[in-house]
Amino acid sequence: MTTIKSRPFLILIAGFLVLFIGGGARLAIGLTLKPMVEELGWGRSELGVTVAVFQVVTAIAMFYAGKVADSMSLRLILGGGVALGGLTIGAMCLVTEPWHALVLYGVAFAIGNGVAATTPVAVMVTRAYPHKAGMANAIALGGMSVGQLVVVAVLAAVMVSIGWRSVYIWVGVAHFVLIPLILAAVPGKAAAAQARSAAAQHGMTLREASRTKQFWLLIGIFAICGFDDFFVTTHVVAFAQDRGLDAYMAGNLLAVMGITGLVGVILAGGWGDRSGPIAPTLASFVARVAVFGLVTVDQSPLSVLIFALVFGVTFLATAPLTVLFIRDSFGTRNLGAIGGLIVMVHHMCGGFGAYLGAALFDVTGDYDLVFIIMCVASFAAALFTWALSAAGPADPSLAARK
CA-CA distance, 161 to 302, in Å (whole number)? Predict the structure, then answer.
């Protein structure tokens, strides 16, 4: 069997495409939110509950996928997740009642999308590029941004031309097209075991890490990051339409955010490799404070566009930095387990953010209060990042190596 060291570029491509399809697919519900609720006679909060459940379930799936990625076949993990995701997101074309969306998208698709997601991809890519983990993960995670650009732009055109149900059919087909590449390129159990045994095995267990201040600061940072992220991706299209943009232009805001997100994730990965993850993370949250403040006071089409562009730069910026935070604070021995737990919290809080936006909109008729809450939360995350910079590594052996 070809070892992981002999084909790192192919592994990187596979990771990129898994996140390309999965990242575009998870945004389909935000793209179709307004026409779905209008055709089916639902409230936005009913789909908001579905998104919130999706975030919780996919977060739990990400944790367990990360935990087993430390020792199990990545081919089986990613291939199985993509197959389940494709089957269930495609079936969303059949929904007629809120509970159908809850079961299909909120639970079943969430499991598939969570298994074939950032944590096992990060483990795979970090093994292939141990000395350039920030940039390699940024390139792989750039698949989410490019997926947001290409997949969402295509789906927006499909929705306008032949309706929102076709969006789910086509995104389901895209999952199954990806499976042969996963089977050919992604390492199996033997190759993963070889790579893991060759890697540096220093570092803390998840239990040990959870007893440190650094761990809880990271949890706070990524909880707020998810809270912001999934409120915006779920509601930005509907918000833009509320402020006067037509359905096609509003739908393409997600694609525009994909362009700026790609720029942001690549810059963050390279910056993190050079100087560590603190500075790019701090810059990301300062930018969020600024743009949430902007749309709190001005919701003209220009401000909505500025908001989408700037928030898009920050959307995935912290994703490749997760690996660097874990490496610098806890070591790499349990990268999948620690990273999976952090990502789980990120997505659970993302579900709460998506639901809170819908619930407050149904009560107040706008998103103004939510923007204020997001602005304050982002400021708190910036403070947590600053505190983490002063704390240093949680594992004393890491400080000694430096």
Answer: 27
Q: Is residue 401 part of a domain?
A: no
Rounded distance between C-alpha atoms, residue 103 and residue 116, angstroms:
19
Does the residue 11 lie in any domain? yes
388 class by beta-carbon count within 10 Å (0-12 exposed, 13-18 middle, 19+ buried)? buried
C-alpha angle 280/220/240, rounded to 5°? 70
Sign of CA dihedral 49, 55, 58, 63: negative
Q: How many Cβ atoms sit within 10 Å of the Cβ of residue 312?
A: 29
- CA–CA distances in Å: residue 37 to residues 46, 195, 293, 362, 394: 9, 48, 29, 13, 48
Question: How many structural domains does the chain have?
Answer: 1
pLDDT of amino acid 197: 58
296: phi > 0 → left, psi -120 to 50 → alpha, else beta; which?
alpha
DSSP one-letter code for 194 = H
Strand-pairing partners, residue 331, are 203
Indicate which CATH number applies to the domain containing 255.
1.20.1250.20
Asked if 114 and 59 count as a contact pair (C-beta separation under 8 A), the reply is yes
DSSP letter assigned to residue 41: T
The parent domain of residue 281 ranges over: 7-395
Is 400 within the bounds of a domain? Answer: no
DSSP labels, 345-392: HHHHHHHHHHHHHHHHHHHHSSSHHHHHHHHHHHHHHHHHHHHHHHH-
- The rounded distance, in Å, linking the Cα atoms of 82 and 70 is 19
10-residue stretch averages of pLDDT, the chain, 402 residues long: 59 91 84 83 80 84 85 86 94 90 93 90 84 85 78 80 85 91 78 56 81 95 94 87 80 78 88 92 97 94 90 89 89 83 87 87 91 97 94 68 52
10: CB partners within 8 A, 6+ apart? 185
Per-residue CA distances from 17 to 11, 150, 157, 261, 340 (Å): 10, 12, 21, 16, 20
Residue 353, class by beta-carbon neighbours within 10 Å (0-12 exposed, 13-18 middle, 19+ buried)?
A: buried
Q: 117 with 323: CB under 8 angstroms?
A: no
